[in-house]
Structures are given as structure tokens and as C-alpha cells.
Design brief:
The chain is α/β, with parallel strands linked by helices. It is 35% helix and 22% strand. The protein is built from 7 helices and 9 strands.
């Protein structure tokens, strides 16, 4: 069953899609307000799709049920992610990508983006793509797979996907070092990886949105 989504089209007959995954405990409405701040004149018509993650118990929050892409079992990043939950979310993302293809937007005109836990799923899904997407956006996040598992899952075609990462220098939730380690690993795999750092905590800032807009402009121009 497809996840419920919040959608926003910047103009009729969208030619591109941006599938954006929220962070832990948020929902698809969380990043919808970013659309008018991000979108620029001259871009092709876009469909933004903001899915709601399923409700699930989250171990580090005392088993409380909330919207989450996977269970977070431990504050230690190396032990944090529930890999079965990560894989379930990857399958749900793939179903949404397939729906966009059925609606006339093929993978090569779709950007997969995510913040925090949503960004972790974006990275995990992106490295396993056999049909490359137009690009990956991973904000304030980390790779939820051990390096060896990531290497085993890596598809040769996946490294053609440009990757934009951004992170707060003062992030107390996902330390900057975790984002840097993910960027370094993926760059080593062959991904064209951009990593931007900002003087902020676990958040998104105006400068970051501007840099992301520049990067997206380049993606649209490469079509």
C-alpha cells in the first residue's frame, strides 16, 4: 500500500518530481513550507511529494509510537538503525518512485531528498538504485548502514547520481562527523558528492536552501 503524501505542484503538467522524506516524529507537512523559499523562476514545472512515514514504536523514545522511517535503537550511530525498518522504508520509497513513473515522470527526472532520518533512507535507497535518479539530497544525516553492507549493496549505476549533503557544525543530534564520514565513504564509491557545512544545529537555514537551489538548477540544466 502506498504511503499517504502531501503534494504540491509548482505549475500544471509537472515535468520533474522531488520526493522529500521528513525526519523522526515529523510528517509530510514538515517540509512543505520550504517550496516557495526554494523554487526559482525558470525551473521546469515540479511536483513535490512529501510522504508520511508509518507510525512505529521508537526504542530511544521509550517505545512511544510516532512517525519514523525505522526504529532508532541506540544513541550510538553505529548501532542506531533498525536495518529491517530501513529496508521496509526503501521499498516504500521505491513504490512512490514507481508511481511517479506511472504519472509520466521517469526516475531520471526525479530528485530524492530527505532530512535527518529521511536523509538516511535517501542515502541507503540511492546507493542501491539500479536505475539512477536525477540526484540525491541528504540533509543533517548519516548513512544508516555499516560500510561493508553499503559496499555490498552498491549498484554500479548508482554512482552516476549527483549527491548534495548539508550539515550543521553544531548539530547535537547527528554529529557533523557522521555526515562527513558518509560523504567520504560515498565519494570513495564514486559519487559526485557536494557537502556544505553551516553554523547551525539540527536544522535547515536560508543559506543552505540557497545552495540547494543552485545545485538543483544545475540538475535541471543537465536534463
Amino acid at each position: 500500500m502506498l504511503l499517504d503524501t502531501v503534494e504540491h505542484e509548482t505549475a500544471p503538467d509537472p515535468q520533474w518530481a522531488v520526493l522529500w522524506l521528513h525526519g523522526l516524529g515529523a510528517d509530510g507537512h514538515d517540509f512543505a513550507p520550504i517550496v516557495p523559499e526554494l523554487v526559482r523562476a525558470g525551473w521546469p514545472p515540479l511536483r513535490f511529494v512529501f510522504p508520511h512515514a508509518p507510525l512505529r514504536a521508537v526504542t530511544i523514545n521509550g517505545g512511544m509510537r510516532m512517525r519514523a522511517w525505522y526504529d532508532i535503537r541506540d544513541l550510538d550511530l553505529a548501532q542506531r538503525a533498525d536495518l529491517a525498518g530501513v529496508d521496509e522504508s526503501i521499498a516504500q520509497v521505491e513504490a512512490l518512485i514507481a508511481r511517479e513513473a506511472a504519472r509520466g515522470i521517469p526516475p531520471q527526472r526525479l530528485l530524492l531528498a530527505g532530512f535527518s532520518q529521511g536523509g538516511a533512507v535517501t542515502l541507503a535507497a540511492g546507493l542501491a538504485r539500479q536505475v539512477p535518479l536525477a540526484g540525491l539530497v541528504a540533509l543533517s544525516t548519516y548513512l544508516p548502514l555499516p560500510a561493508q553492507t553499503a559496499r555490498e549493496r552498491l549498484q554500479p549505476q548508482a554512482v552516476s547520481q549527483p549527491l548534495f549533503m548539508a550539515h550543521g557544525v553544531f548539530d547535537p543530534v547527528v554529529p557533523l562527523a557522521a555526515g562527513e564520514a558518509a560523504a567520504e565513504l560515498l565519494r570513495g564509491f564514486g559519487f559526485d558528492t557536494t557537502l556544505r557545512r553551516y553554523p547551525m544545529q539540527h536544522a535547515v537555514c536560508a543559506e543552505e536552501i540557497a545552495d540547494l537551489g543552485d545545485w538543483m538548477t544545475a540538475r535541471f540544466g543537465a536534463d
